Amino acid sequence: MRINNMVEGFVAKGHEVVVLTGQPNYPEGEVYSDYLRDPAQFSRYQGAHIFRVPMLARGKRSITLALNYFTFFTSASTFGCYKLRGQSFDAIFVYGVSPIMAAIPALVLGRLKRAPVFVWILDLWPETLNAVGVVKNPKLLGLVGKMVSWIYNRTDYLLLQSRSFDEDVRKYCTRSISPGRLVYFPSWAEDDFSGDAQATSDLLTRDDSVFTVLFAGNIGEAQDFPAIMAAVKMIKAELPVRWVIVGNGRASEWLGKHVVEHSLDNVLLLGRHPLEKMPALFATADALLVSLKTNEVFEKTIPGKVQAYLASGKPIIAMIDGEAARVVEESRAGMACASGDAVGLAEIVRTLSALPVAEREEMGVAGRRYYLEHFSKTTLFDRLESLFRKATLRRHDK
Question: Are 108 and 137 found together in one domain?
C-alpha cells in the first residue's frame, strides 16, 4: 500500500512519523485475530508510531461498511485527539481514498495542533458514489457535496492524484484558492517493480508456448470483467493465450462461476497475494491488463496499477478511457482501446501476441522510462517533503 511506502520513506529520511488509524479489518471485514490477541504488536511500523482507535469492522454488508466509515471518523476525532495529546506536528497528511470523511479527524487535529493539513485526493466525492451506484438520490448526493465542500475549504493543501481532478475539486472550494494550494501529486508504484527482476515466482511458471495476459488488483464491478471474459471467448479457439487474474473483490464470485460455466480453462484465478510477490509474478507475463468501465469520473482517474505496470517494464494492455489511456499511449508502453470494447481488447491481444519479442520489450523499456520521468517514488517523496517544509515555514511566519 502506498501509505506504507510513504511511512517507510519519511522515516528513512529521518523524520518522526505518527500514524492515526483504526483497528485492522481490511479487506476481510473482521478485525484481525492476531491484533485482538496482542494489540501492542501492531503499535509500530518501520520506526513509525501507530495509534489505533476503536471502530466497527467493515463486515460484508453495505450498512456495516457505512457504519465502519462513520465510527472511524467520529472515534478518530475524539479518542484519536485524546491519544495524541501533548504531541506536536509540523504537518498532517491524509491518504484520501474513499471515504472523504477520513479527513475530518485531520482537520480537528490540524486546528488543535496548529499544523497545516494536506489531503491527497485519490477519489472524487460525491461523483464516485454516483459512478459506482452506491448513492443515486440527488438530494443525498447534494448533502455529500456540501460535506466535501466543508472539508476542502478547511484543508490547507489539496493534492490531486490526476491533473483532470482540478476542475472538479475547484467547484467545491467556495473560498478563494490561493496559489499553490492545489497541487498535482500522482501515485507511484507500490513496490520495487523492476523490469529486470530475476526472482522466480512461486505462483506461476513462465510458459513461452502461450501469450500470457495478467490482471492484478481489485476484481469489482468497475473493472468490467464481463467485457474481459467476452474478449477471452472471442479468441480462445484462435490463439494460445493464458489469462491470469490476481486479486479479489466483489465480483470474484461471479468471475469464478463464469469461468467454470463456460469452461474457460485458459483463465487462471490465483486469488489475492501480497505485494512482494507481484514483481516476480509480473515477470511471467507477456503483457499486463488494466480495465475500467466508461464513466466521466473514471476517465479522470489513473488506477494505481498503471504506475506499477509501467515500473515493471512490461507492455500494457488498457481497456480504459481518459487519463489512463493517455498515459499508456503517451508513454508508448502498450496499446489501449475504449472502455467496454471487448472486440478492441481481443484485437490488441492478437496484435501484441504477433509482435516480435524485441518489439514488446521496447514497449516495456519505454514504459519504465516514462515511469522514472513522471512517477518516480524518490522524486515524489522529495516534492512532498519540500511542500511540508514550506507549509511549516509559512505557518511559523504568520
Answer: yes
